[in-house]
């Protein structure tokens, strides 16, 4: 796969997808759109890749959203094209932002501004690590351009309806500290360290048995917003797909024989934050 507007790297079982238009603050145009679809499809279907990291090239921007200079290259007034979007037959306007069935973990390493569609892409991830100079905002508000790649749906799920509506309506830009305070990001790191930290976190996640991670993510995504009894049915169905996998037997063997690092008397625990008893 040869890309010109993104970079797609594979580091063992970790994928790094990087917006690569630093001269345009990593905004997404028609070419970027197609390349993102191709890269995410490869990650989604790969048997080897376990975790994806999404980040931007350069030091200024994670992603500034859609390329406004592209015009109808991104949004078309054609009636059939509009209908295809409304009925869910299109993956999104700036990449496959409407995909909801990637159940592998995704980390956003937000290395600069994340505006409009860039904020939507940050919200696409499960975990967001922001550099201290990163900023976030629905800045497309000033151009009368709505959110069309998940922002109105994912942002309220992450930070709550009240805070999300304030950001969506006002277009106010917030810094990394406020993003951490309201729960938009999980962690703030020094400038230049987001990818390093994301790689370390991805390495830990990739070291864990994968089936239960994926079915738990699936249950959380599919069950969110449903009545509790319906969500519990989804959880049970997902649980029964993971519990009988070979990885469970292998992990239980380590538990029973006390050979897992968390259970050994000597050496550090493998689980972050765990204090050995």
Summarize the structure.
By secondary structure, the chain is of the alpha/beta class.
Helices and strands in order:
Elements: E1 6-11, E2 14-19, H1 30-45, E3 51-56, E4 61-63, H2 79-86, E5 106-110, E6 113-115, H3 117-124, E7 127-131, E8 135-137, H4 151-159, H5 161-170, E9 174-175, H6 176-181, E10 187-189, H7 194-207, H8 211-223, H9 228-242, H10 246-256
Parallel strand pairs: 2-3, 3-5, 4-6, 5-7, 6-8, 7-10
Antiparallel strand pairs: 1-2, 8-9
Helix pairs in contact: 3-4, 4-5, 8-9
Mean pLDDT score: 95
> Number of domains in the coordinates?
2
CATH topology type of the largest domain: 2-enoyl-CoA Hydratase, Chain A, domain 1
Overall geometric form: globular
Corresponding CATH architecture of the largest domain: Alpha-Beta Complex
Beta-strand percentage range = 15-25%
Order of helices and strands: EEHEEHEEHEEHHEHEHHHH
Instruction: Please state the CA-atom Rg, rounded to the nearest Å.
Output: 20 Å
Physical arrangement of strands within the biggest beta sheet = 1-2-3-5-7-10
Name of the level-1 CATH class of the largest domain: Alpha Beta
Sequence stretches where pLDDT stays below 50 over 5 or more residues: none
Termini separation comes to 49 Å
Category by helix and strand content = alpha/beta
Number of strands: 10
Helix content: 25-40%
Helices, by number, come to: 10
Q: How is the main sheet built?
A: 6 strands, mixed
Look at the structure and name the CATH superfamily of the largest domain.
Answer: 2-enoyl-CoA Hydratase, Chain A, domain 1
């Amino acid at each position: 796969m040869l890309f010109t507007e993104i970079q797609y790297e594979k580091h063992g079982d970790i994928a790094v997808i990087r917006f690569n238009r630093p001269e345009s603050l990593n905004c997404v145009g028609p070419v970027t759109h197609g390349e993102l679809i191709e890269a995410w499809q490869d990650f989604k279907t790969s048997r080897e890749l376990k975790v994806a990291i999404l980040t931007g090239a350069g030091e200024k921007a994670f992603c500034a959203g859609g390329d406004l200079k592209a015009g109808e290259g991104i949004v078309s007034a054609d009636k059939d094209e509009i209908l295809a979007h409304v009925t869910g037959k299109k993956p999104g306007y700036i990449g496959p932002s409407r995909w909801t069935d990637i159940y592998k973990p995704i980390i956003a390493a937000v290395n600069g501004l994340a505006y409009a569609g860039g904020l939507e892409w940050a919200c696409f991830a499960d975990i967001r690590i922001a550099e201290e100079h990163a900023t976030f905002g629905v800045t497309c508000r000033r151009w009368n351009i709505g959110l069309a790649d998940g922002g109105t749906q994912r942002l309220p799920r992450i930070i709550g309806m009240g805070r999300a509506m304030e950001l969506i309506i006002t277009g106010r830009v917030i810094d990394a500290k406020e993003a951490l305070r309201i729960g938009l990001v999980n962690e703030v790191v020094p400038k230049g360290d987001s990818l390093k930290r994301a790689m370390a976190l991805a390495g830990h996640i990739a070291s864990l048995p994968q089936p239960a991670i994926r079915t738990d993510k699936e249950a959380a995504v599919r069950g969110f917003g449903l009545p509790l009894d319906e969500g519990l049915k989804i959880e049970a169905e997902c649980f029964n797909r993971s519990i009988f996998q070979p990885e469970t037997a292998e992990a239980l063997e380590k538990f029973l024989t006390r050979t897992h690092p968390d259970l050994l008397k000597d050496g550090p625990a493998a689980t972050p934050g765990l204090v050995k008893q």
